[in-house]
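Design review, sub-item: ligand-bound model
Attendees: FS, YL, KQ
YL presented the inputs for the adenosine-5'-triphosphate complex:
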Amino acid sequence: MFFMTNKAAVCQAENGPAYVQLDNASKYFNGNPAVLRLTIGIDKGEFFSLLGPSGCGKTTTLRLIAGLERPDEGAVSIGKEVVASVDTWVSPEKRGIGIVFQDYALFPHMTVAQNVAFGLKGCRREQIRPRVNELLELTSLMGLAGRYPHELSGGQRQRVALARSLAPRPRVILLDEPFSNLDADLREELRRETKRILKEHGATTILVTHDQEEAFSLSDRVGVLQGGALAQLGSPAEIYHRPHSKFVADFVGKADFIDGKVEGGIVHSAFGSFSLNGGPDWGMSRVELMIRPDDVDFVLDAAGQATITEAHFLGASVLYQLRFADGRAIHAIRPSAEPAPVGSKVRVKVDASHIVIFPKELQVPG
Ligand code: ATP
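KQ shared the predicted structure:
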């Protein structure tokens, strides 16, 4: 599905500002917030992802931008124009938005070329043909122009949907889990292709996904949602290495949390003492240290303090569980070329430069 902008912009390239801004936008269903006071600004040409677990409000946010839902509070702007607020409403077809849904929603009775041309209705014939050819070329579909959707693979259908949504030169492309129906191999290839196509086209893109790897590999920036609100916004590296909360840390990759104590700018833990490097010093306080498996290494050592209790082969790497005598376990990830056997004693090394600390949550007596 896609929405057209005005005719002049559909038929010819449009110059000018195009960005998306949510200002304190909220949407409630039956009194429950699906999106809560969300403020996000997305730059022109940016590839932005909304990431979060099921039910956190990703699709509702996309629908607010598209004009398929009205915000109960706050405002949505596209290209500096307020398109939705308490007293403003611009209908979806006037917002200059293209959408690619999970199921692609192609017209089954139309060929590939007709599907792509659909968004150019009202344009002159001599404008339509070159634009369709341009899109077919961009999406590597030139040889398939006369085929019907049922004669295409899943990946080809996804590219037709992308070409169709780009045809009217939308200001913004919204992608709602567009890779989830594809098998792992194809998904990876299509992600790369999609990013290339959208970047070449200069599109401002907002992707909704619950897959952190997908969000990280595609996006300039990622917004992590939790219960309809923004938990964190930043580059993939910032979100992965500097999560603002345990929720984000846990959601965007494997993390172990161990107890520590901060005293005079040093955090003491079972894995040693580390300087906070100018980070927050909360006086003497109980904290939790987040340690990612890629910051943990080990050497085989019969006198080591931990034992390898699990090893999960992941292809290029192996994820190890390392258990200490007191029952605590942390994880390490290492290249798979020379796997270490389960049962081996190891000496654990932690890369202190990547440790993130969180205030220890209060335990409420049960
Ligand atoms: P998923 O990844 O499962 O698609 P999501 O992050 O996209 O989830 P939303 O679909 O935006 O989440 O839903 C957010 C919340 O709003 C959920 O609790 C959902 O049940 C609720 N919700 C969404 N649409 C409606 C609706 N039309 N009527 C009532 N509740 C709704």
